[in-house]
Task: structure prediction
Amino acid sequence: MNQKKVSQSTISRLFAYLRELKTLSSLNIRTISSSEMGERLNLSDTQIRKDLGYFGSFGTSGAGYNIEELKVALKKILGKDKTWNVCIVGIGHLGSALLVYPGFKNHNLNVVAAFDSDPKKVGKNIDNIVVESIEQLKSSVGKKNIFIAIIATPAIVAQKIANDLIDSGIECIMNFAPIKLDVPEHVKVENVDLCHALETLTYFVGSGK
Amino acid sequence: MNQKKVSQSTISRLFAYLRELKTLSSLNIRTISSSEMGERLNLSDTQIRKDLGYFGSFGTSGAGYNIEELKVALKKILGKDKTWNVCIVGIGHLGSALLVYPGFKNHNLNVVAAFDSDPKKVGKNIDNIVVESIEQLKSSVGKKNIFIAIIATPAIVAQKIANDLIDSGIECIMNFAPIKLDVPEHVKVENVDLCHALETLTYFVGSGK
DNA sequence: TGGTGTGAATGCCTTCACAGCG
DNA sequence: CGCTGTGAAGGCATTCACACCA
Result:
């Protein structure tokens, strides 16, 4: 067991392991080896053992990992015993889609608030969430115990929104606006720049038009 | 100039440089140094010079980079003189949002086709694209000269769709389904697993509920 | 024997340091 | 003197190799 700096990619993979374990569990499989797991997730067996090694020893030599035990261990490591409230800012096409995205509900993520600056959208009820105005952002985020925000606004206002969110206590931001947000050290930002990702893909296309 | 293996992150950053150069250009700025550029993009100056160094020498000692010249050079390097046809498979909430996403149009990406298995959706006209049935996928992709696809279907069918796409000549896939796609060597996949990204963020939240 | 756990080796990417140029 | 271009160093993540265990 080695409690020193664990990379984000390791953490990210641990979540993938946990998800896979849930699938295996539902198939009534009892144990799995790191190499079998690796095949399922397109990862090397060593990678998996290394990742787990940061947090302890969970396997049995010669036998592999007990799925239920590892599930419990990972849930604890990853904080999956808690639930997280999430808000979405910017209820355009993308924001609306995220608001009804079923995937979040399967995890421990609850979308509990939505904000938009357009008066025409404020008050609208989408999937049991009533859209609030941007002015209410600061007070609502605190009141509703929200620590994670999704920014789905135009790029031009994203930084201002981010500032407001951080002032209100937000610690994690998933940012869909195509700009690099400037945030304090303690705030974690995950950028999802759709154009950029697609654009980058084009570089790898051999035959063009 | 050194034509050996350039990492994907370098390519990804080059696109960011190009976008920033366009902004600078529209502000009538003539030249920029790597350190100024770095400040704008939250990158180190060396990083930028290294990235450019893979493709040649574009700057002037003591003066920095001529914005227009560098723009032209990057456009050429990145294949921005071509346009790319894109299709979207799975026209649910997310797929529809992507279909009308304005960001793509600003780049050299044209969404030219959309597919869904739901007969109720087939034939619908969204933003001048008529949704086609999944059966038409194979023939349409070839006919319409599409090399890039966005998968926005449920996870359960994503692999099958991917296989069909690849059979039809697709070389790049942006995958929103929460599974690891199994694809041949030559196909480039960019996974955008929204749940996974958000889930990973939760690990970094200090105070829980 | 089959598989874990882990120090050592590798490889990749970023940063450093600085020579050289305008 | 300021800034580029680049070999060398450093840091980080993955892979290798193997000791050890059920």
